[in-house]
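User: I'm writing a short methods note and want a consistent example. For Histidine phosphatase family protein, I'll paste the sequence; you return only the structure tokens, no commentary, since I'll be parsing the reply automatically.
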Amino acid sequence: MKKAMRLLCALSLALTVLAPSAALAQGTIYLVRHAEKESVGKDPALTDAGQARARNIAATLRKVGVAQIYSTALMRTQMTAKPLATLLAVPVRTYDPSRQAEFATQLKALPGNTLVVGHSNTLTELVRLLGGEPGADIADTEYDRLYQLAIDKDGSVTTVLMHSIPGAPPAP
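Assistant:
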């Protein structure tokens, strides 16, 4: 009996310690800059490396339960969002990056997990408006930053900075 009780206590402690922080959160917001773009044109498409990165982001996030996907109207952000949207059969909604404060308020009110695809010159401010820690500005040549913002029920935010890599997505 004592052995069973100790095992039950140990199991309860392990589950408490190992529970992911997202389980305690109202929702998690993932934010990425669009993937690598062509160097010419006013609204350039993604390069082959950018398309590979977009597929990799989709493979990375497909199992986290993304319920909403937001992107600016530009082709490079739409193309970055599309692989995950296709995998999950979730529509890509467009947001206006010039109205970030309103968008941040809207994002905070959403239940579940959300992906936002933005730009190097607006993404860090959006992270800040959401209560996260953006780190340094995103360089024009930087495409691998992936923010995970877990928003707790009390409104506190935990920021995890991850990195995406171009290339073949991980095996299922």
